[in-house]
Amino acid sequence: MVVWSCLQGSRELIRGKELCTIQRDLHRLFDGLGDNMNFDNVTGVFEKSKNDFVSHLDLDLERRLKNELALILDVPILSEESNQEPVGDVFWVVDPLDGTNNFVNGLPCFGSSVALIQDGISQVGAVHNLVSATTYSAAVGAGARKCLKGSAYDLSCETKNTRLVGASTGFIRWALSNSETSSLLLQTLLNAGSLRNFGSQALQGCIIAEGALVASFSRESKLWDDAAARLIVQEAGGSWSQNIETEQNSGDPGDGAHLAELGTSFFGATFFDCHPEIKVLIDKLLSKGSRKGPD
User: Fold this and answer.
1) Gyration radius of the chain over CA positions
2) Do residues 116 and 177 share a domain?
3) Under a CB-based contact definition with an 8 Å cutoff, are residues 18 and 9 in contact?
4) Are 244 and 216 in contact (CB under 8 A)?
5) C-alpha span between 29 and 14 (Å, rounded)
6) CATH number of the domain that 245 lies in?
7) Confidence of residue 279 (pLDDT cuts 50, 70, 90)
8) Does 50 score more than 90 pLDDT?
9) Which 3-state string (H, E, C) describes 164-209?
10) How many CB atoms within 10 Å of residue 75?
11) Are the beta carbons of 106 and 45 closer than 8 angstroms?
């Protein structure tokens, strides 16, 4: 059993409720979330767009999470699978199943992500690995932690002598088919270490927070992919940034149009970074600018 204590800095109130209490409630929500679920039973799968699937598990988890989140704090919910409309200054962001492609193909790396946004900033976030039953969470000013089998551990981005770098399929495709700058960026990453793609943006961010990756890049991530993980990474001592190419925005509140309202900036590549010298190099490369390649 985890003994939960409110750290200094996590006592800020949202709608009369402490951030620490919300963080604790999210852990309780995720505790046992995957119980009685048969992850080998893949049904009700359909393709929303090319290589973008939704399954019965996405919808089942979304329904359960929406019901439980309303009990924690009754504010609007922005979810990947249903409500995708801008929802005010305080709202939940939910990705019920991050890593659906992994789940559909029997790859055991997928989870759920929940964040509470206020005035465009993630205030509390939690990511739950449905396979290992591990929960990662953070609250503004209170650090990040990992809970597994009743034990809690503080997270730190201080790496474990790793040379692993996360890179999404979209990022690699962009780097290979774009300008000299993007090709140079990819080569820089290959020189820095080996590339990894776990197929779940939220869990990949948590791996950064554990210090097992030095950085992670994505071209295709949405708000629901990053909202919780970015806070967990930041509270573990890392950084997150994003650049918005506004002329490319589709109006989808999960893409740059909505993220721009949240005050984020970088070159379309989500960047979790634990080494300032690497970030300086990447910033220098990307400041030259380049055009977005094909999706």
Assistant:
1) 18
2) no
3) no
4) no
5) 19
6) 3.40.190.80
7) low
8) no
9) EEEECHHHHHHHHHCCHHHHHHHHHHHHHCEEECCCCHHHHHHHHH
10) 18
11) no
Closest CA to 236 of 142, 161, 166: 142
For residue 2, the SS3 value is coil
1 in a structural domain: no
Among residues 68, 37, 28, 67, the alpha carbon closest in space to that of 55 is found at: 37
Q: What is the pTM of this model?
A: 0.80
| Domains held by the chain: number | 2
* pLDDT tens, position by position, 128-170: 999 999 999 999 998 999 998 888 899 988 766 767 888 888 8
Report the C-alpha gap between 219 and 114 in whole angstroms: 21
Pair 121, 104: CB distance under 8 Å: no
The CATH number of the domain holding residue 35 is 3.30.540.10
Contacts of 157 by beta carbon, 8 Å cutoff, 6+ apart:
208, 209, 211, 233, 236, 237, 238, 274
In angstroms, the first-to-last Cα distance of the chain is 46
Residue 260: pLDDT over 60? no
244, 111: one domain: no
Interior CA angle at 105 toward 130 and 27, to 5°? 10
Q: Do 22 and 142 share a structural domain?
A: yes
- Same domain assignment for residues 86 and 147: yes
Supply 237's token pair.
């001592």
User: Residues in the chain, how many?
Assistant: 295
Same domain, 77 and 179: no
Verify that 205 and 129 share a domain, yes or no.
no
Q: What residues make up the domain containing 235?
A: 164-286
Token readout for 220 is: 């295709």
The DSSP secondary-structure symbol of 266 reads S
Other CB atoms within 10 Å distance of the CB of residue 13: 10
* Residue 246 is assigned to a structural domain of this protein: yes
